[in-house]
Structures are given as structure tokens and as C-alpha cells.
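>> received
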Amino acid sequence: MPGARIAALGHHQPNRVLTNHDLATMVETSDAWIRQRTGIATRRIADEESVADLAAAAAGKALAASGLTPEEIGLVTVATCSAIDRCPSIAAQVAGRLGVPSAVAYDLNNGCAGFCTALATAHHAVRAGAARHALVVGAEKMSDVTDWTDRSTCVLLGDGAGAAVVSAAEDDAIGPVVWGSDPTRRDAVRLVDAWHPRFAQEGQTVFRWATTELPALATEACRRAGVAPEDLGAIVTHQANLRIVDSVVRQLSLPDRVVVARDVVDSGNTSAASIPLALAKLVERDEVSPGAPALLFSFGGGLSWAGQVVRCP
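>> returned
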């Protein structure tokens, strides 16, 4: 089998910034309360932009950075849980906007674990020869599914998109995926009311799971990739809560030189978009070197998880 690698990345966020002080005028909360419990300071909110708009913008940047033509893309997948479009898929809309003529295009809903799940499926497809180049996107407009009267959840969520081009390569630069779910906790993160969905979660259940189970799963992803945690160049976990990010990093005993993504501070929880958004920013700012191993690990609704070690483009 050929290998596969992430050839390029792109990201997009809407212009409007919603601060904690703004939220304090909408619900009973404060900047100090939000920062203490989540670490979040701001988040971006899309007004007129749709999930397809966000996804196409990020995917277009990744495609441009790859140097490929639209005709060379054989697979387009968009991880999203917030899109209201059922058919055509967001992926088909992205392909159409970018001029990708004949790729297989499909959406993947695995909640906040969606991007790493989609990345694994694209990785498998490229290695199997089903496509030579794939566009993998995580895109969410969580503001569409936010209950703006619930102070426990409305302070968490933001909008945005991130994308990666996965290309065939001589050597495999995407490690084996560690993925799974715990259906007994399937309601820990959910959208309620199918026709007017609103985000809801059992916050303590998610926090306890992430801080007790995630470190071992992350270590297993490193083991399968043949990379010791201390040899990582970066770690990008799902940007749900800064306390979770810091707890996982602490339990992995990572040295200070390992770059830790903390985009949750500025972007909030963007669900399936959080990992490609944070990774693309680290690469764009030259905070990680090309070829450096980065651990990606996501978790969310289902309760599902997925993660792998990748070599940065």
C-alpha cells in the first residue's frame, strides 16, 4: 500500500468576536466565571455565513496551499454536526464551489470527534488507492444550535472551519487511528430536538471521562505510531475546555518544548472544527516544524473518540 500524508492545511473563522463581557449582557455570567471554568475568553460567531460557506473557505485555502488543481481531488469529506442541510451534503456543496468535478463527496457526523474520524477514513481511502488526494474538512456553525438562554452551554460554543489535504506519499505520515465509543454515555453530549436542535451536555460526565480516560487513549495512539509522547512536536486535543487540555498534557508528562494547542481560549469549542482549526494556526505561525509529529485527539457526542499522530506539513 502507498503511504499518505497531510500535504496542506487551511482555516477560516467568521469576523464577529463575541467576548465574555458580551455574554454577561445576555445571561447571568461574568468574564471571571467563564475563564475560571472553561478558560475561554472569546469565540467567533457567523452571522450570514452558513456551514457550507465556512467549510468552502477553509477547504479553498488548504487546496491553494497544496498546489493541487481541483481536478486532482478524488474525495471530499466534511465532518459536521451542526449543518441543517441534509441533501445535498456540505461536502458536495464544497466540491461544487471549488470546482472539484467528480470526487466522492460525503458528510460525516461523529460530533466533536468528527475531524479525526474523517481524517482516518480519508487516510484509509488514499492508502487503499480509492483516491490519490482528499480534502478533509471540519466545519461547524455551533451558534445555530446554541441555547442562548443557558449560561452553562452558551458560553462554550463558537463557529469556524479547518481543512486538510491528504495526499498519497511514499512513506506513511499519518499514524494508525485509535477510535471508539461508549454508547452507555451516548447522551453526555447531544443535540436535542431534531427539527430545532440545541446543544446540551452532561458537563461533569464529559470532564471526568476526558481527564481519566483520554490520557491512556492518547498514549495508545502514540504507541501505534511508534512515537513516544515525550518526542512529540505538538499536541492538539479537542478544544472543549482549557482545564481538560491542561489536565491531559499534565498526565502525559510532556516536556515544555512540546507545543500545546490552546486555541479554545480565543475560539471556544468549535466541535468538529476545533482540531483542524487549531492545527492549521500552529503551522501557519511556524510554531511546529515541518515533519514534526503532532498528536491529534478528539472526543464528543456518542460518547465517541478518535485520534492519531500525524507529521506536520
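>> Residues 203-225 form the longest helix (23 residues).
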